[in-house]
Amino acid sequence: MNDTIPVLTRRDCLLGGGLLLAARSTPAPAAATASAPSATQKLDARIADPSFNTELVGRLQGDLSGRQRWIHNPGFVFATVPGQGLAPGEFGRLLYRVEGFTARISRLTDDGSVEERSHSWMFYRHAEEDRWLEKFDNPWTGETLDAPPFRGGPSHSWLRPATGPELDGGTGLESTAIGRPTHLNWRIHDSNVWLTRHAASRLRSGATARNEFSIDQWICRLDHVLDSRHRHVPATYSWTSQAEWQPWLRMGNRPGGLLWRIDSVVLDDVAQLPTAFVDRMQKLLPGKLSERLTW
To answer: What sign does the dihedral 244-246-249-251 (CA atoms) show?
Structure first.
């Protein structure tokens, strides 16, 4: 896959689901349960509802009021090589860092689906030095490689209550989340809630197939989640993914793979992006930050 041309971004491809878990209080007496649902039963019913979970994912990822949002996506890319020792750089090592952004608009459709349009870009950074990555010295092959200047592209997707994610132009994508009701894993503690989703996916491009397993996690306030007047739910978000070697690393059939970790924040305005990142965007992708997404 050429990393310098528009591609399906990982988070557009990997929309997860899973087993529902909710914090429970002491069971209500049988008579009370028969007469009226308890607060816990009402909460359990909401978080088990695929329609509620679908709308919630839309409120977490973007803004269902229709307002365009910008997401800053910095993170790390590690390599893991099975069978190696634990000395620094043997079993696991930090290969490089990444920094990107996503512009997104979202809306709730008449059938209860969340429709999204987004545009994402990602740049590579040196693992330890405060500079953009231009050349990469592959520690296994000894090659000095040209690091891709960027990767990313546009996407148009839907998250449907009954059948999960659907990606426009997603031919060749297989995922354990596709064709299933939208679910989230829940953990509630006091006023906070931890929400996760996971999926194993495979993306085919010609004769090449690449597998990936990803986990999304949001940490946010329970009252924001349950109050539908909040069309965007502020949250601490992280994305972890186990993936195969990127083609540009030229690793061939060498054992091992990559571990991605991205920690994102949804911004109110593009002006909140770091200055160094804005300068990089203006240099390599002039005009992209100021573009407005439309339906």
So the answer is: positive
Q: How far is CA 239 from CA 137, 170, 263, in A?
A: 26, 21, 6
Distance in angstroms (rounded) separating the CA atoms of residues 162 and 291: 33
Please state whether 25 falls in left (phi above 0), alpha (psi between -120 and 50) or beta.
Answer: beta
Q: Is 225 helix (H, G, I), strand (E, B) or coil?
A: helix
Buried b or exposed e, range 43-57, using 16+ CB within 10 angstroms:
bbeebebbbbbbbbb
pLDDT at 29 over 60: no
DSSP string, 119-185: EEEEEEE-SSSSSB-SEEE-TTT--EEEPPS-EEEEEEEEEETTTEEEETT-TTEEETTTTS----E
Cβ–Cβ < 8 Å for 242, 213: yes
How does residue 35 score in pLDDT terms, banded at 50, 70 and 90? Answer: low
Answer whether residue 2 shows pLDDT above 50. no
281, 100 in Cβ contact below 8 A?
no
The residues with which 114 forms a beta bridge, in sequence order, are: 108, 159
- 271 forms beta bridges with none
Please give the DSSP secondary-structure letter assigned to residue 247.
G
d(CA 196, CA 175): 16
